[in-house]
């Protein structure tokens, strides 16, 4: 049966502006609060033990509810879910900026996570169903990938400026104009294809199992950072996550209208994207975290100077995504962009393992940042496009949610894993060099830098593993080339389900 040719929306490029703006807001929020956290902690009297919850409350709600948000977008409509997510995110940000105590701030962060879980997958799936022509799709996802990859570093810059020159509360208030402009533009411009919704009932058992399982997993890594990997609560959370997620897979294989149709993750190209992106984000989050502390504590940079120091990485990501990834996406196979991209990023990290107390920014840190940005931008562009590779429009929301879930879970794992490695290496260095130390303060800083470089070495290996997975699993041809590696799994399910009307796949 020949594929139906989708109608082209004449306002699609205007729609991209508002979709990208919303994505930028979500990505910015993942890092902008990190710079402001010390000021907020001091102002509200948050203890050192509780300060991590400003980050964790958001991560738990966002990571745990992403699959639910993706399916809501498929059922309820992506445009409606997108605007609702923007409105809720703006209200939660206003609440956080006006917080008078710790409880209100943590509640606002959790609410941001809830509405972010509606917003992020609906934004990506709107992009997927709006841009269907191969060359235009490559350009659109190039822009989206640059924002997804570089937005975190921009958040560090913006967070530094707002915190240093205004107030930590503005790191929350700044979301409101982003959300208002994006929601207004979306209402006026975005036109969702009428036949792209999924009319099936919501899978409530799947929602509960997926949410509880992902929350347990993310919280387990958070507890591992503070309590240790072999502590009872940590092991208990990991065990609960394993049981809940296994039960989720079993339920999804049995129910008629699953929250996450297993065909979405069983197709090897999408599986390769989810796995490689999750691993890559582990390395990226570690880099942002350690280099932020290194530049401020060891090098004495101000918050603004720290943010500006990351600017070359942002430029590299934008260049890699829009000038390399987008231009080559329609000419060569995606894995020949993703695997080399991750390898170049790993090379940039390898350069950054050489940081020391007196490291020159132009001579060493700048080249490392540029390589990291170019590599990640080049890899992120085809990865974002392939997140919805071969899916039917009715599954676009949940497929989009999976790529966000892999990044969010990867970020939580990366923060905990690399922090633990850095802390252990720092302690070991301080203990072994204590006898011959001339100064305790100098030893403390030397041990800290040793801990950072040890963790970055691990991040290098993780990025190389991401590249190997991308090269091995992703075997689709270039878009529009008529690759025989189409999504056979999806085609099989579509043929087997007698009550489903065949619809065109989104990309090949």
Automatic annotation (TrEMBL):
The chain crosses the membrane at residues 15-37, 52-70, 82-100, 106-129, 141-162, 168-190, 202-222, 228-251, 272-295, 307-324, 336-355, 361-391, 412-435, 455-474. Pfam families: MFS_1. It comes from the Bacteria. Residues 482-508 are annotated as: Disordered. The keyword Transport applies. Residues 15-478 form the Major facilitator superfamily (MFS) profile domain. It is found in: Cell membrane. InterPro entries: EmrB-like (IPR004638), MFS (IPR011701), MFS_dom (IPR020846), MFS_trans_sf (IPR036259), Sugar_transporter_CS (IPR005829). This is MFS transporter. It comes from Streptomyces siderophoricus.
């Amino acid at each position: 049966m020949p594929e139906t040719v989708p109608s082209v929306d004449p306002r699609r490029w205007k729609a991209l502006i508002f979709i990208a703006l919303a994505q930028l807001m979500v990505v910015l929020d993942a890092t902008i609060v990190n710079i402001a956290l010390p000021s907020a902690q001091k102002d509200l009297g948050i203890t050192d033990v509780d300060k991590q919850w400003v980050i964790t409350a958001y991560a738990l709600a966002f990571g745990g509810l992403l699959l639910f948000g993706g399916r809501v977008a498929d059922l309820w409509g992506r445009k409606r879910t997108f605007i609702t997510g923007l409105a809720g995110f703006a209200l939660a940000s206003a609440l956080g900026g006006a917080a008078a105590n710790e409880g209100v701030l943590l509640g606002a962060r959790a609410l941001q996570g809830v509405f972010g879980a509606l917003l992020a997958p609906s934004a990506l799936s709107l992009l997927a169903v709006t841009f269907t022509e191969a060359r235009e799709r490559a350009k659109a996802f190039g822009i989206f990938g640059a924002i997804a990859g570089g937005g975190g570093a921009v958040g560090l810059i913006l967070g530094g400026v707002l915190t240093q020159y205004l107030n930590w509360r503005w790191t929350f208030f700044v979301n409101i104009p982003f959300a208002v402009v994006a929601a207004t533009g979306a209402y006026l411009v975005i036109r969702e294809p009428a036949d792209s919704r999924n009319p099936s009932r919501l899978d409530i058992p799947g929602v509960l199992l997926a949410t509880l399982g992902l929350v347990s997993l993310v919280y387990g890594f958070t507890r591992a950072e503070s309590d240790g990997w072999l502590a009872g609560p940590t092991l208990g959370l990991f065990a609960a996550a394993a049981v809940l997620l296994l039960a989720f897979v079993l339920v999804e294989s049995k129910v008629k209208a699953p929250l996450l149709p297993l065909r979405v993750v069983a197709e090897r190209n999408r599986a390769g994207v989810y796995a490689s992106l999750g691993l890559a984000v582990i390395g990226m989050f570690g880099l942002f975290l350690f280099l932020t502390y290194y530049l401020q504590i060891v090098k004495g940079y101000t918050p603004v100077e720290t943010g500006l120091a990351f600017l070359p990485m942002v430029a590299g990501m934008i260049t890699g995504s829009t000038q390399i990834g987008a231009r080559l996406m329609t000419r060569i196979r995606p894995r020949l962009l993703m695997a080399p991209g991750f390898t170049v990023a790993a090379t940039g990290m390898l350069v950054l393992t050489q940081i020391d107390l007196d490291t020159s920014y132009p001579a060493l840190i700048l080249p490392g940042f540029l390589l990291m940005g170019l590599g990640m931008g080049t890899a992120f562009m085809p990865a974002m496009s392939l997140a919805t590779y071969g899916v039917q429009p009715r599954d676009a929301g949940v497929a989009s949610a999976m790529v966000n879930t892999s990044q969010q879970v990867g970020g939580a794992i990366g923060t905990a894993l690399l922090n633990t490695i850095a802390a252990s290496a720092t302690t070991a260095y301080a203990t072994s060099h204590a006898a011959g130390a001339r100064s305790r303060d100098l030893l403390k800083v030397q041990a800290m830098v040793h801990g950072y470089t040890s963790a970055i070495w691990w991040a290098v290996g993780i990025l190389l593993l991401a590249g190997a997975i991308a090269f091995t699993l992703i075997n689709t041809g270039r878009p529009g080339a008529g690759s025989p590696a189409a999504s056979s799994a999806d085609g099989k399910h579509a043929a087997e389900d007698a009550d489903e009307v065949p619809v065109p796949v989104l990309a090949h």
